[in-house]
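Supplementary notes for students who missed Thursday's class. We covered one full example, reproduced here. Read the sequence, then the structure, then the short commentary at the end.
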Amino acid sequence: MTETVRARWRRVRGKCGRAGGLLLAFALVGLTMACSREPSKKALHARAMSPAAESRRAEEERKMRALIARLAAVPGLEHVLTHFTDSCTRPYNGSIFENNRSPHVLRCDMQAVAYFGVQGDIADVLRRIRAADIAAWGPQDSAGRDVPHAAGTVTYALDYLRRHGRHPDGRTMPAPTLKAPGLQLDWDSPDTPLPHRVNEPTPCPTIDLGEIHQRCTTHPESPTSLTAARTRYGTILSLNLGGWGSSASEYFTVPRGK
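Structure (token representation):
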């Protein structure tokens, strides 16, 4: 009797194993078919370099350079260098177990970081940046005034500098930065409770990282290092362009099936 039960159990296990193997095989076949429907890298590169993509690319770079030029015109700031990155990649679609398929087969993004030497008091320069009306930095009320005590505004940054980074009760204030959609301003503040130094730009990659399109440039081509610029000016300020709220984020996409 015992042997009969064991024999039946072995047969059941064998059938389950074969069924599981078939299910796995079907899943792999489905995955292979789905992957085979993805456009080739050559086809996507052609779309990334199409007249439509090049037009959008040129427009976003023009807008970025115009903003950088406006900031460079603020008294007390001198342009040191600008680092541009522009790439087109396949969006992440998740694993075979995730239902996270992107509606696009290609997305292109552009980012830039411009670095400036600060001449004189950073507080005076921040006031001039606000007066230049380059962007609405941080939360604003209906009259266009900084929301009181709101981080990301010039008012908060000046308050932070005036209080040396501490609330009246001695608590540390959050570090200041100026923010607007697609823009962020940071600067050296080594003598505050939350020390910060603007980092050197990330070097351009020297190898192919597998992107459909990759462009990385630095202007001027042989710039002064930030260390040398900091020695000359004392304080470095950086303007980050791109990312959330920016038209440069996904400035060109190719919808799935197009």
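Commentary. The first strand starts at residue 77 and ends at 89. Confidence is low (pLDDT under 50) at residues 19-36. If anything here is unclear, bring it to office hours.
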